[in-house]
Fold these 2 entries.
Entry 1:
Amino acid sequence: MAKATGKKAAVKKAAAPKKAAAKKAAAVSPKKAAAKKAATPKKVAAPKKVAAPKKVAAKKVAASTPADQKSLLQKLFVDGLKDIYGAEKQLTKALPRLMKAATSDQLKQTFEEHRAVTEQQVGRAEQVFQLLGIKATAKKCEAMDGLTREADNIVAETQKGTMSRDAGLILAAQKIEHYEIASYGGLAQLASTLGLEEAKNLLGQTLQEEKDTDERLTQVAVSSINIESEKEQSPVPVMEEENKDENKQEENQNGQEENKEN
Ligand SMILES: [Fe+2]
Ligand SMILES: [Fe+2]
């Protein structure tokens, strides 16, 4: 048995180098290795994985073509125009309320003048719609809605006939003007990019009017209203007045009682 085992072992040992040699030969075979290396990139490059980015790239190229870019910008421009057209219409309704609530004639006049200017601006926006060949459509402007409500809150929270109310109204009106300045500035720029020179000029005219109104409001504020407003004192609440009288009566009574005891 031991001899037989020794023979088998010898046979295995003899066979082993052959297998190892075969493996080495296969591993070393430069032709096969080169063939494998050459085949691998071909498989990766050809199929779907490489095709996917091609589709994305194609879309990007399409989006950046001048025709598509213009239509997207034009949509953005028209949306913005509808928004500011709605904002101006909302403002024409709010300005008479602010004018009525104002204390000084100077501020009343400023609001009245700007109401008339705002009506002209509505007409100018309609001209821009006309240039684009689109029906003038007003979109509710959420920002203007909030800004005019804030102005109404100033009226509710301040005392009638005070300069403090006017100072608050100027603050609210300037927020409105700055919103309009931002809107018209942006729209005029979009019109320029779209090559709509006439629309750009019309929007630029309104932009200048908004800037002038903002400046006018600052002048009205600093010339007198803010100065007068600073002198105004917060009225003493009625309850406090009553309490003061009651305290005085108590003091007098106590004093009289003390005198009696003496
Ligand atoms: Fe305006
Ligand atoms: Fe305005």
Entry 2:
Amino acid sequence: MTIVEEKPQPATGAEEKKLPIDLVSNAGFVVPGNNAFGNTFRDYEANSERKDTVEEFYRKQHMYQTVEFVKKMREEYGKLNKAEMSIWECCELLNEFVDESDPDLDEPQIEHLLQTAEAIRKDYPNEDWLHLTGLIHDLGKVLLHPSFGQLPQWAVVGDTFPVGCAFDESNVHHKFFQENPDNDNPKYNTKHGIYSEGCGLDNVLMSWGHDGYMHMVAKENKTTLPSAALFIIRYHSFYPLHKERAYKHLMNEEDEENLKWLKIFNKYDLYSKSKVRIDVEKVKPYYLSLTEKYFPAKLRW
Ligand SMILES: [Fe+2]
Ligand SMILES: [Fe+2]
């Protein structure tokens, strides 16, 4: 098994994590067949008790996520003046919430974070940066908390997509974009919109949510996590890209490399949402050591 180097790399550095291809096929992770509601994962048509809530969620999300809204949110939250706390304190804060957009999950967030991280750790024991990425990838959901503006669910969770160009048909509940004002704006409704071919996802405005926020927090607090980790945090809800290969024309070479890691990560994010219980206190020291390695003791949020 090839081991990639473990040395932390600069957050914004051009150096990328190269994907050890044999790790992909060696991964021993077993995909469970059903989610907590007894349905297959990400089945938006299944008659679960969540279906109506989820549909209503995407109606609002597609209607309200515009270029103007995203710019406003990025400016406001870019100030990082909402709180000062450690990564672990944030995990505990988040534990109060359940994600309404998600047809698969009805457990406290901390379980999901640790299930994801621990499942990755089992299959990729030497990639400690990826374990930590598992732990922190959803911390941006604190946007739901009163101290963070208590944003509505549609501005925090759910699949993400680029704004400023045409909404690709592979987006879930695509029909609801008809109510988005950008959909009628000739500046924003063409294939490339305000972007150019191969411009790189870093230059693309994504719908606002926990992914973009956590990416901002990690980067601005000068994490030493590698670029693949930041890519995973930023795009893990960008299902049209990693599942359908939509919006490929906006990607550059570095994005292509990082996407390989995101695809690995995604399997764990999605399928660890089953009834596997984690002994939080037992694994806590390990994750505290990782946060010390890759982050300052207190972060600005
Ligand atoms: Fe997420
Ligand atoms: Fe997640």
